[in-house]
Amino acid sequence: MKTQRVPFGQTSPHKKNAVFLAIYVDAISPWKYFKDDMQHFKCPALIMIDRWDGRMGFPGGTVNEGETLLEALVREIKEEIGITIKPEKVHPIASHENRIVTHFYGLKVLEAEFLHIYYHILNNFSRSILLHAYEEGDNSHFMSEITGIKIVPLLQHENKGINRFIENAFAGATREDLLVLLKEIFGIEI
Asked: In what residue span(s) does the Nudix hydrolase domain sit (predicted)?
C-alpha cells in the first residue's frame, strides 16, 4: 500500500495510530557568527531526530489504547525528547495512512524559544547518555530509539539545502509530512 494523505485525525480501528511533532520557527539566523553576508540571513527551521535505525524523523510514537491523539502526543514528546508541550499550543498539519495511520502536528515557536528547546533536548540527551554509561538508566528513549537531534534550516540554495536534505532516508510518512509542512506552512515547493 502506498502512503496516502487522509483527513486529519482520521483513525483506523484496524491499524495502529501514531503521532508526531514538528517544532519549528519562522525565522532563525543559523549563520549568525559567520564573517560574511550569510551572518544576516534568516530562514525558517525545524527540529528533527536521528533514529536508531539510521533514518530521520520527527519525535513522537504510537497511540496507546484509550488515549486521544493529543494525550499520546504529550506523552510521546516527553518520553522521546524530554520536554512537556501544551496541547493548546500545537496545531494539526497532516495525517497519512500506510501500514499505520500517522498524525502530524506542528508547534510554532519564536527563535529564542526554538534555541532553548533545542539546547534543552541536547541537555536531556547528554544526561541520558551519562546515566546509560553508569548503568543507572532513565525513563527517556534516548539511546534506545533516538541517537541524535538536529536543526534543519529550510532554504533552497544552489542545489543544496532542503531540496537535497529531502533525499535522505526518512521513517514512515516523515518525507510526506515534511513536504506538506514545507508547502502548506512555509510555501516552499520541492
From this structure: 14-176
For the chain, what is the domain count? 1
Distance of CA 102 to the CA centre of its chain: 13
Backbone angles phi, psi at 74, to 5 degrees: -60, -45
pLDDT digits 0-9 by tens, 52-96: 899 999 999 999 999 999 999 999 999 888 899 999 999 999 999
Q: DSSP letters of 140-186?
A: S-BTTTEEEEEEEE--EETTEEHHHHTTS-B-TTHHHHHHHIIIIIT
Q: Domain residues for 55?
A: 4-185
Query: CA of 50: how far to CAs of 43, 47, 100, 111, 144, in Å?
Result: 22, 10, 20, 22, 11
Among residues 143, 189, 177, 138, which one has the least CA distance to residue 57?
177
Does the residue 175 lie in any domain?
A: yes
Question: How many Å apart are CA 108 and CA 103, to the nearest integer?
Answer: 17
- Residue spans of beta strands (DSSP E) within the chain: 4-6, 17-28, 43-51, 56-57, 60-62, 91-97, 101-109, 146-153, 156-157, 160-161
